[in-house]
Specification:
Length: 290
């Protein structure tokens, strides 16, 4: 029996655990580690595999998981970087559902942060100073207030979690943020950009620029950061657009990957397929839309 096609599946663990057909993009992990960029932003159009790739990255590094089965048949296991699997405290959040009005955007951002606070609840049981305890309680109160439409009271929520993770595990933290730009786009379209920009920019800045607990971070989105008004001093950011060679083969399908996939289902890469799904050129690769 042929493997099912994972229509609508956007989570790497689901893809592998349910044995769907998949195209191995795991060498993206080795590229990430070789480049040693502190913060990487990858921009691609919608529906090119950004979410499934960044969830793969998070699954690989997360030290609270055992990912051997997830990666046992992938190319990354044949490299020296397999020793990095499950070796880091890892934060993975997605702003994909931070849409519509300001209240829902703020609520969704806080929900994502609360999930990571819950997942790592044990790190807050470690003894804290009176000042750390006070900050923790203040941040928890801010995260629990879902309907205030404010981010100004949680701008240290991500960086504080990173600090506690480093103190608990004695390792720097990996941070992965999917669709980082969705709240900014929604705020611009909805007319509340100036109300949201400061709080969200500070949340990201405090985690990705000034935090001493960060090892590496990766963000994905559909548009390039406007450095002058979002991350004005995030000078450790490497931006990889569709024009850049970095990571160009990992989003969408290369011609060879498309050919192999079609042949698996007794189909062929013909002119009709090319007219439907070809037409993209990322870096040095002709890319097909998944």
């Amino acid at each position: 029996m042929r493997k099912a096609i994972p229509l609508g599946v956007v989570d790497y663990e689901t893809l592998k655990n349910l044995n769907y057909y998949f195209i191995d993009k795991s060498m993206m992990i080795s590229d990430f580690l070789m480049r040693k960029s502190t913060v990487t932003l990858i921009t691609r159009p919608r529906r090119f595999g950004k979410t499934i790739n960044i969830s793969m990255m998070a699954s690989f590094f997360d030290m609270t998981k055992d990912s051997k089965e997830l990666f046992k048949d992938t190319k990354i296991v044949e490299t020296e970087y397999i020793s990095e699997m499950n070796q880091y405290p890892t934060i993975f959040i997605s702003f994909a559902n931070a849409k519509n009005d300001k209240w829902n955007v703020v609520k969704e951002i806080k929900l994502q942060l609360r999930k990571e606070y819950d997942r790592y609840a044990h790190v807050f049981e470690q003894k804290m100073t009176i000042f750390e305890q006070n900050e923790y309680e203040s941040l928890v109160q801010g995260l629990m207030t879902k309907n205030d439409g404010l981010l100004d009271n949680i701008t240290d929520a991500l960086s504080f979690l990173m600090e506690r993770l480093e103190k608990y595990y004695h390792k720097k933290v990996m941070v992965f943020i999917d669709e980082y730009d969705t709240p900014f786009i929604e705020a611009h379209v909805g007319g509340y950009y100036e109300e949201l920009r400061g709080g969200l920019s500070s949340l990201l800045h405090n985690a990705l620029k000034t935090s001493t607990s960060l090892h590496y971070a990766m963000m994905t989105g559909i548009q390039r950061v406007a450095k002058e008004n979002i991350f004005s001093d995030l000078n450790n950011l490497v931006v990889c657009t569709v024009k850049d060679p970095e990571y160009s083969q990992y989003f969408g399908f290369t011609e060879e990957e498309t050919k192999q996939t079609l042949e698996y289902y007794d189909l062929s890469l013909n002119d009709e397929v090319k007219s439907m799904y070809d037409g993209y050129h990322f870096g040095e690769y002709d890319i097909y839309n998944p």
